[in-house]
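step=encode ok
step=design start
structure_in=
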């Protein structure tokens, strides 16, 4: 059943949200009011962007030309694809509203219409634009995931987020982000991503978009292709890194990926998807978590067909935006928290320059260059809350913890165990990047800990 007047099924969303303070992880920021858009789909649900409802303490929704607010709550959220489904407590909210149906991926040069409630006004807004490009781009919401997106010159402003992009009375996208510095450029989430999300939640649990666990490199050099006995001059990309356990089990480095999920893979690592040249990674992200993707590879001068299991990657969670309360451990005024992208964001807008190459290397690169030395959860001394027990410490925060009492720290659990199991008279804390060490009197630290927590208004000494 389609909506004859689609704007009547477009919903205005109001949120009151409160984000954690990643630098002082026991605290939260001020409550922030924001607006967004959504639209009704089958099953009396409202689809919107994950970033519209992230950290929301309260969600209110309003119908087209209706001033009455209704309470809503998040039913499912996919931060990796920036989509969410809302439920409304009052079931009468949906009376007379027809669900919008999801269409197909629009072609380049087709005309689309964006409907929503952009900031700066209370009335619904309509903008028209042309589809200019279909490609894989980095989604801002997760920060470390690239999925299919459609570029358009239709205006997509704050408040438009989560609203439908329409063509022929069907939804062909969900408006979600722009590009800083580019005018008349916006992006929307296309039907293949929307349908993947909806199929994923059918079992009442959202898993996410899987990855093959490989890194592809172009295989353009004709001499090398001849050495590998590859006859087709433009078919096949080199697998140069195996990152997941399943990839290591089924594939080898220097295998050549010829085909993935039925799509021939070009020498430049791209596939032809619905008439658009996009990165071959989309062939794997189309599958659901824990399913198998058929692939053809070239190995030892011959073709080989395999069924490659693909899974959602949870190991790189610290490298992206997490949307879970931060872990911390407070001891003797020392506040410890994991090194993460969220934590680095507390350094300011230019955090990648402020943080320094050492922390960036530890978080983003060491696992690839020195896997034997990488840490599953690097730990930072975030800050030191002033007290006589730590007054003589010269290092006051924003440094990586290397070891405590001679024990290497690979995670927050390692850190806590190193402190709480130690029976010596002093705690010795060594820091990374050759920044030296600090020492605490153990008995004095234990005696002062509760007093410091009370002084600074910290209710719990840990959050894990």
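sequence_out=
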């Amino acid at each position: 059943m389609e909506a004859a007047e689609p704007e009547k099924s477009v919903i205005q969303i109001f949120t009151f949200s409160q984000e954690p303070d990643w630098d002082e992880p026991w605290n939260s920021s001020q409550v922030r009011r924001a607006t967004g858009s959504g639209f009704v789909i089958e099953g009396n649900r409202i689809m919107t962007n994950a970033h519209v409802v992230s950290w929301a303490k309260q969600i209110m929704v309003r119908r087209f030309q209706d001033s009455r607010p209704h309470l809503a709550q998040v039913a499912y959220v996919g931060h990796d694809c920036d989509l969410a489904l809302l439920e409304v407590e009052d079931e009468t909210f949906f009376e007379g509203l027809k669900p919008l149906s999801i269409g197909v991926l629009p072609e380049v040069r087709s005309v689309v219409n964006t409907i929503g409630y952009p900031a700066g006004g209370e009335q619904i807004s309509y903008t028209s634009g042309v589809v200019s490009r279909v490609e894989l781009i980095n989604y801002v919401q997760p920060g470390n995931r690239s999925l299919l997106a459609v570029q358009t010159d239709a205006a997509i402003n704050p408040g438009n987020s989560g609203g439908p992009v329409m063509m022929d009375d069907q939804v062909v996208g969900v408006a979600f982000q722009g590009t800083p510095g580019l005018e008349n450029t916006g992006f929307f989430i296309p039907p293949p991503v929307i349908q993947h999300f909806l199929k994923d939640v059918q079992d009442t649990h959202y898993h996410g978009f899987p990855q093959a666990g490989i890194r592809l490199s172009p295989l353009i050099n004709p001499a090398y292709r001849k050495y590998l006995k590859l006859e087709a001059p433009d078919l096949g990309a080199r697998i140069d890194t195996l990152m997941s356990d399943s990839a290591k089990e089924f594939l080898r480095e220097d295998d050549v990926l010829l085909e993935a999920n039925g799509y021939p893979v070009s020498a430049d690592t791209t596939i032809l998807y619905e008439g658009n040249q996009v990165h071959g990674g989309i062939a794997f992200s189309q599958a659901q978590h824990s399913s198998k993707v058929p692939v053809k590879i070239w190995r030892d001068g011959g073709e080989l067909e395999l069924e490659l299991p693909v899974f959602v990657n949870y190991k790189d969670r610290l490298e992206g935006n997490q949307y879970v309360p931060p872990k911390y451990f407070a001891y003797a005024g020392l506040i410890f928290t994991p090194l993460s992208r969220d934590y680095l964001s507390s350094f300011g807008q230019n955090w990648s320059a402020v943080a320094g190459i050492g922390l960036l290397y530890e978080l983003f690169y060491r696992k690839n260059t020195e896997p034997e030395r990488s840490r599953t959860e690097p730990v930072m001394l975030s800050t030191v809350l002033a007290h006589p027990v730590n007054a003589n410490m010269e290092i006051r925060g924003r440094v990586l913890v290397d070891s405590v009492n001679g024990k290497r720290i690979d995670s927050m659990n390692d850190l806590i165990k190193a402190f709480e199991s130690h029976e010596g008279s002093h705690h010795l804390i060594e820091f990374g990047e050759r920044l030296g060490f600090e020492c605490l009197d153990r008995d004095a630290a234990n005696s002062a800990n509760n007093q410091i927590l009370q002084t600074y208004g910290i209710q719990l000494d840990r959050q894990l």
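step=design ok
step=annotate ok -> Residues 326-463 form a domain with the N-terminal domain of MutM-like DNA repair proteins fold (CATH 3.20.190.20).
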